[in-house]
Specification:
This is DUF2989 domain-containing protein. The protein is mainly alpha-helical and 274 residues long. It has two domains: 104 residues, no CATH class; 118 residues. It is built from twelve helices and no strands. The longest helix is centred in the N-terminal third of the chain and has 32 residues. 25% of the residues are buried.
């Protein structure tokens, strides 16, 4: 029996190693067949940062086929991850491999230049996603102004963009922020939920002294993976009667079901008397 287990373990190891080598060979061939991917600037044969580098190379192929603003933003993010990995790798002192250290340094410089290139390219799009990216990532105030001017336009009707608007207003207009967060949740894909929406709604309602709504959003958030206080601490924090807790839990369950079915509407949250 132990011998069988040993052979099975060996087979799994060989399979995984084979898959890893196959993936490397596929990436090498991709680079050979597509010089426009500029793989040579990515220190292709270095054992460090292999995953980040491979993800970036394959995404560059996607960008070449479909150079949308969203794809270029993803390329920027993948380049940033690769650069962060290189910054760590550049501190590793290879034994008798000065050339390898130099290649890592060159790849690090190239990554920075590519991020600058992508920023300039994204300036040409003037889409909500590109404008928000330039504002949030580079601090471009002109991009922020243009982005805010799009508020209320059909192209802003997505969960991500409504949440992006909410981040601007959170320190300026809390009621408007709550409204935008609710609309973001209304537009959300249940498979790609931004759980920060629940955290923000719980916190903002707490600040507005809407204890019932704050508790409901905390319970909803907990269902979707947000870390909250223990049930005992929640009961001490909010101080409702058991009957009221039960009622609020029922409302939370209704909202959870609606979010999961993509049928949430802000009117599902009752108006509670202060």
């Amino acid at each position: 029996m132990q011998q069988q287990i040993k052979y099975a373990s060996l087979a799994i190891t060989v399979f995984l190693l084979s898959g890893c080598l196959e993936n490397t060979r596929n990436t090498d061939k991709l680079c050979q067949d597509n010089p426009e991917l500029r793989c040579e600037e990515l220190n292709i044969n270095d054992g460090q940062c292999r995953v980040a580098r491979t993800n970036l190379i394959w995404h560059r192929l996607k960008v070449n086929k479909n150079p949308t603003d969203v794809n270029k933003i993803t390329e920027y993010e993948l380049t940033q991850k690769y650069k962060q990995c290189l910054e760590v790798a550049a501190q590793i002192q290879p034994i008798d491999q000065a050339e390898l250290k130099q290649r890592r340094f060159n790849a690090l410089l190239s990554s920075g230049k590519n991020m600058e290139r992508l920023e300039k390219e994204l300036m040409k799009y003037n889409t909500p996603s590109s404008l928000y990216f330039l504002w949030s990532q580079t601090g471009d105030t002109q991009a922020r102004r243009k982005f805010l001017q799009l508020e209320g336009k059909p192209e802003m009707e997505s969960a991500d963009l409504q949440y992006a608007l909410a981040t601007f207003y959170i320190d300026r207009d809390k009621e408007k922020t709550i409204k935008l967060l609710n609309h973001a949740l209304e537009l959300s894909d249940p498979e790609k939920l931004n759980t920060s929406i629940f955290e923000s709604l719980a916190s903002l309602n707490q600040l507005r002294h809407r204890q019932e709504a704050s508790y409901i959003w905390a319970i909803v958030g907990k269902h979707f993976g947000v870390s909250v206080a223990s049930p005992e601490s929640m009961r001490l924090m909010y101080g409702f009667s058991e009957e009221k807790f039960d009622m609020l839990d029922d409302i939370a369950d209704m909202i959870i079901d609606a979010v999961e079915d993509k049928e949430y509407h802000p009117s599902m949250m009752p108006e509670f008397k202060k």
